[in-house]
Prior knowledge:
Layout: H1 2-15, H2 17-51, H3 72-154, H4 160-190, E1 198-201, H5 202-211, H6 214-219, E2 223-226, E3 232-235, H7 237-254, E4 260-268, E5 271-278, H8 285-288, H9 313-322, E6 327-332, E7 338-345
Parallel strand pairs: 2-4
Antiparallel strand pairs: 1-3, 4-5, 5-7, 6-7
Helix pairs in contact: 1-2, 2-3, 3-4, 4-9, 5-7, 7-9
Amino acid sequence: MRLRRAWRAARHFAGSPTGRLSASYLAVIMIMSLGFSFVLYSTSAHELRKQLPPQDGFRDGAGLFDDDFMPPQRVNDFLRERGEAARRTLIGRLVVLNAGTLVLGSALSLYLARRTLRPIEANIEAQAQFVGDASHELRTPLTSLQTSNEVALRNRHLTIAQSRELLRQNIEEVAKLQVLTDGLLQLARQDHAAITLGPVSLQDVAADALNGIVDAAQAKDMSVDDSVPAVMVQADAGHLSRALAILLDNAVKYAPKGSTIRLAGGAKGKQGYVRVIDRGPGISQTDQRRIFDRFYRADQSRSSQHVPGYGIGLSLAKKLVGQQGGTIEVSSQPGKGAAFTIYLPLA
Length: 347
């Protein structure tokens, strides 16, 4: 039974991408090792043959040997035996060398195969999860649309007022779908977006990003305290402005009416930073570990306000910052607001 399981496991591994790639790497290693061994053996055997006596042996008339020291025939036999022994020793050592190469090459090939396939598998898994999550998020508004329309069609006494209300609800669901699809398209396009890095002023980027949230902030009677200095960082101005606008938009959505959003910045070591601070409900430590995952929304903290969204914004912001060689961090405590900070190399 154990042998059968081991055989099945071996067959499964041999047919897996890791097994096939490992075999390819091992084949390359062994071809190189055997080729080196063949060249070494051919060269060494040629040199050994040059050291052997001629076919007719050393003749006594050559004056090289005295009869009372060692007969020429014995010298001939001795040299030939030494040559054969050296050849056999060389073959044995080459066999051991290639056997060791096979063992070590197998381990190295497996390591290289796993290391090569790890990012590919992670990318495939991320794509599969992305498709699954997107399908789930799309299904919710589509199901709502279908259900409400079917109910309305079965209602023979549907009034004009009810029809108007149904149309209003349908428009709301379509708007949600539009927001979701726009976010998905932004994520997809960002994978192939061109990045142009250069010296960028954090002050200018902050001013540009603020223009996009002025109306939303005024609608909630909110103010923004902008104290970002003119620190120069190495970044793409457009991408950085979009990432900062996402953070500001989130702050406006989650912070209470009449509150103030702080926008700060500066330099720390070899990095410049810009920080968005709100006085919203905060984020728990558990949610902070996943807040930048696609479609993830904190159910027990910020999402308790029923803010519309699909958990795409922060994921997009992280990608935008990461493509510029920067990082984005969050610091928060439930009930005490949140601070999102973007770090980028100084120019």
